[in-house]
Amino acid sequence: MALSGVLAWHPEVAMTKEEIDEFLSGRWVARLATNGKDGYPHLAPLWYYWDGECIYFALTETRQSCKNLRRDPRCSVVIDMDERPLMGMRSNLAKAVVIFGNAELVGVGSDQKVTINAGPWQGEHTPGQAIAMLTNRYGIFARDGGLGMTREAFRDMFTQPDAQDSQIFKDNVGRVFTKIMPTKIQAWDFSKSPIEYRKSSGR
């Protein structure tokens, strides 16, 4: 079978549940879209954690994304990669997962526990514990051979007398654990496109 036109989502390029889980286990950057009060969508690049059922973020109360979700929990997220601009079109290596859902927010100062639905961190945690697990997925430690601003150096920076005057400290005050429960997921891997299409397109 041949696909007409440019590459677009099609059942033959859809990712399976296992493929989605494997892809989202990577340390990609997600883009969270929320509904602004002015009617315009607001986009923010964020670190995330996917447990196989829900996607989680560590926002702060001052972020526009958090303010928007407090007012309207409906949102969407995209995590994608595309090597074609660097590697050429022949491999057609482009993957993406788009998640539509509703957000649940719990601040670090709350007595309320948060629940990670599935995966290795399944269970109840304090918001602070859950946020620490999420952010540690991305940080490079000295044990990994990291130099400069390793996770240890980042933590040590907050113990300095003038730490509270720094912008990075201010940017990390008022953390909010954000859980997005999907209502719809669409995912594709264009490298799975039919051979007939690649031939007809010269790929």
Structural notes for this entry:
With 203 residues, the chain is an alpha+beta fold. It has a single domain, classed as Roll (Pnp Oxidase, Chain A). The protein contains 7 helices and 9 strands. The strands form 2 sheets. The protein has a 7-stranded antiparallel beta sheet with strand order 2-1-5-6-9-4-3. The chain has a two-stranded antiparallel sheet with strand order 7-8.
Question: How would you sum up this structure in a few lines?
Answer:
The chain has 203 residues and is an alpha+beta fold. It has helices at residues 17-24, 64-71, 84-87, 127-136, 151-157, 167-170, 195-201, and strands spanning 30-35, 41-46, 49-50, 55-60, 74-82, 94-107, 114-116, 123-125, 175-189. The strands form two sheets. It has a seven-stranded antiparallel beta sheet.
Which value, in Å, is the CA radius of gyration? 20 Å
By oligomeric state, this entry counts as single chain
Distance between the termini: 15 Å
Number of helices: 7
- Which segments are poorly predicted (pLDDT under 50) over 5 or more consecutive residues? 1-6, 196-203
Please identify which CATH superfamily we are dealing with: Electron Transport, Fmn-binding Protein, Chain A
Mean pLDDT over the full residue set: 85
What is the beta-strand fraction? 25-35%
Taking the sheet with the most strands, its summary is: 7 strands, antiparallel
Would you tell me which CATH topology applies?
Pnp Oxidase, Chain A
Strand order of the largest sheet: 2-1-5-6-9-4-3
Structural class: alpha+beta
Number of strand elements:
9
The string of secondary-structure elements, in order, is HEEEEHEHEEEHHHEH
